[in-house]
Amino acid sequence: MIYGLHILSSSYKTPGKNVKNIESVVDALEMFERHDLRVTDTVCVYGETKTLGKLVIEQCFPAGLHAMAVDIDKSNIKEIMRRLTALPADQFKHFVNKMIKYAFIAATLYSPAITIIMNNRENKAISDPFKGFEATMSRHRNSYLNGYDNKETYNNRYTEEYNKIADNVRTHLISDIGEDNGYVRLVQCGARGDMSSLQQMFSFKGRIAKSASESFNTVISSAYVTQLSPLEQFISAYGTRKTVIDKVKKPAETGDAMRRMIYTSADGVIVSMDCGSAEGLTIPEKHFAVLLIRAGFLNRKSRAW
Hints:
Blueprint: H1 2-9, E1 19-22, H2 25-34, E2 42-45, E3 48-51, H3 52-58, H4 77-85, H5 89-109, H6 124-127, H7 133-145, H8 151-177, H9 182-188, H10 195-202, E4 206-209, E5 215-220, H11 230-249, H12 251-254, H13 256-264, H14 285-295
Parallel strand pairs: 1-2
Antiparallel strand pairs: 2-3, 4-5
Helix pairs in contact: 1-3, 1-5, 2-3, 7-8, 8-10
């Protein structure tokens, strides 16, 4: 939803040169839903000229909040929702339903995609970041194997050299890929993922976690775009299995229990503070605590959240 709102609210940055005259807002919305026009196309409705995306996003807000319908992302969506909740209930429901509808349409029509032809591979910042890395680490490795360094010193040097390369890649990553890339927009608006996700997709997979505090001293230098080798895929599967195990053993820490609770109650809608019924089920505190412990939200020993 945030991704769709971001697409609509940032369409003004790249407006089309040709202006399309449209008779009404209803016609413009229908063209948007049918994808007859792009969100960056310039339209003229009732004498006002703006991009189609800007026209659509303004339908999700009352006139007094149109100024906030610009560059919507994760950082300002909370303030926008706070302002909307101050409206009367029927108006709040009306605008939020429109926001959800048009945001999901935009996210569906302009979903991120990776082109088959990657023009970025010539840029060494993301295509060949580990050139010379093995030569540097071989000297430290020989020093460790010959007894001049201990394991901790070698691991620290490996991490230090790896972080230098990773930081350099992340610094140049967005400029190399291009800000018009759908996955870059996902990260920038805060809808999904982070720079680490872009790094794994377009530059290199990176190191695999051995535990919560330690990683293997092996770098998977291939990216998802260029495909991993069978050996790299086998090694990276370790981290995937660890994630699955964490979900089974520690559902509260991974957030899996909360996700399942939200999913199962997604169809339920609270329409009032009190349903007015005198019937109900009283749950003793000790029984409620047992339910929380089983769900993983309460610590059994300390009874702390």
